[in-house]
Amino acid sequence: MSEKIAVLGAGSWGSILANLLDENGNEVSLWSYNPEQVKELNEKHTNTHYIKDFTYSETLKAYSDLKQALEGATTILFVVPTKAVRSVASDTKAVLAELKTKPQLVHASKGIEQGTYKRVSEILAEEIPAELRRSITVLSGPSHAEDVAKRDITLVTAASTDLDAAKHVQQLFMNRYFRVYTNSDVIGVEIAAALKNIIALGTGALNGLGYGDNAKAALMTRGLAEISRLGASFGANPQTFTGLAGVGDIIVTGTSQNSRNYRAGDELGKGQTLEEVVDTMGMVIEGVATTKAAYELSKQRGVEMPITEAIYQVLYEGKDIRKAISDLMMREGRSEF
Ligand SMILES: NC(=O)C1=CN([C@@H]2O[C@H](COP(=O)(O)OP(=O)(O)OC[C@H]3O[C@@H](n4cnc5c(N)ncnc54)[C@H](OP(=O)(O)O)[C@@H]3O)[C@@H](O)[C@H]2O)C=CC1
Ligand SMILES: O=C(CO)COP(=O)(O)O
């Protein structure tokens, strides 16, 4: 299968997925709002700020003009940070109204919008009306760009309410090192993907403070329990949380130095302030904003999420991390399930 695909967002994940789609034989245009980055990608075939020591395919073309990138595309893949999805989708809508190409939409972003608590597929559906597009599919799972850049084995899931669309996306991305499953539970996949970043901030912080494997395993397991509770309140399929977008992504993000969220937590645990951590990362740390959205959402829906609440208090109310941990440990004993 070969298509013209526009990838919007040329950070670590967008650029590596664009390269993978190029390798799979597609004609890929990669859009970034940064002309300097576009120049580097087209002339040197590198993207050094985001992915070190990697040479991109020479047939991959980068654009800073959105219309040029979208022209002729039958699939559009959104991979910008969650906070940028609405504005990029709105700009895309204006171009699609002119082009009348009606592409399918895919996204690989992991977050929840501040204030509205919308999932990324909901934002896309709101901003790009059905007459200008086809289906919307979410691509998610345990997948650090750094490993995919090395063509290391990676398994993800493609979730859509339209099974044919999910199968189509599966075929576009699958290759010898990148295996894609399908899933119809868009709600569960998006909630799991967004909220695992909160837990990775937590396991990173435990690491920075010197805690061991038991503590991190405990946080990941009980973190997943509260993510599943929030998911259930939205009608998500409980099985999704045992799959690639759930357990899989908690493991990869909650244990890896490749994770921006884990690294951010690690630095917080070692005593840096949130401001210092955000300033020095130079890449998006989705878990920081998602912690706020998920905390507010849990209060709004009456879902108990003690770990999210503790991390919210540390990030947004200046609570001491050690005190937050001891408060969690001293909660009244209860049944596991
Ligand atoms: N990195 C990974 O391994 C994975 C990431 N993801 C998800 O993919 C999404 C993107 O992450 P990632 O690639 O890591 O992020 P990066 O920070 O590496 O890249 C994000 C890109 O989007 C650009 N950008 C920021 N704001 C805007 C805006 N308003 N309009 C247009 N472009 C903008 C950034 O430019 P600038 O830096 O100049 O602001 C940068 O080029 C996130 O939701 C993340 O959770 C999912 C799976 C794996
Ligand atoms: O989602 C990811 C891996 O699946 C990437 O996580 P980070 O944003 O923490 O790097």
From TrEMBL:
Q: Which superkingdom is the protein from?
A: Bacteria
- Does the keyword field hold Metal-binding? no
* UniProt domain Glycerol-3-phosphate dehydrogenase NAD-dependent N-terminal: residue ranges: 4-165
For binding NADPH, which residues are annotated in this chain's numbering? S12, W13, Y50, K110, A145, R260, V284, E286
Record-linked InterPro entries: 6-PGluconate_DH-like_C_sf, 6PGD_dom2, G3P_DH_NAD-dep, G3P_DH_NAD-dep_C, G3P_DH_NAD-dep_N, NAD(P)-bd_dom_sf
Give this protein's Gene Ontology molecular function annotations.
Answer: glycerol-3-phosphate dehydrogenase [NAD(P)+] activity
Q: Which residues form the active site?
A: K196
Q: Does Lipid biosynthesis show up as a keyword for this record?
A: yes
Q: Where does sn-glycerol 3-phosphate bind?
A: K110, G141, S143, K196, D249, S259, R260, N261
Its subcellular locations are: Cytoplasm
Q: Where is the Glycerol-3-phosphate dehydrogenase NAD-dependent C-terminal domain?
A: 185-325
Enzyme's top EC category: oxidoreductase
Name the Enzyme Commission number(s) assigned to this protein.
1.1.1.94
Q: Which reaction does it catalyse?
A: sn-glycerol 3-phosphate + NADP(+) = dihydroxyacetone phosphate + NADPH + H(+); sn-glycerol 3-phosphate + NAD(+) = dihydroxyacetone phosphate + NADH + H(+)
Record's keyword terms, sorted? Cytoplasm, Lipid biosynthesis, Lipid metabolism, NAD, NADP, Nucleotide-binding, Oxidoreductase, Phospholipid biosynthesis, Phospholipid metabolism
Task: Quote the Pfam families the UniProt record gives.
Answer: NAD_Gly3P_dh_C (PF07479), NAD_Gly3P_dh_N (PF01210)
Listed pathway(s)? Membrane lipid metabolism; glycerophospholipid metabolism
Q: Which HAMAP family match?
A: NAD_Glyc3P_dehydrog
Purpose: Catalyzes the reduction of the glycolytic intermediate dihydroxyacetone phosphate (DHAP) to sn-glycerol 3-phosphate (G3P), the key precursor for phospholipid synthesis.
Q: Which family does it belong to?
A: Belongs to the NAD-dependent glycerol-3-phosphate dehydrogenase family.
Q: What is this protein called?
A: Glycerol-3-phosphate dehydrogenase [NAD(P)+]
Q: Which gene encodes it?
A: gpsA
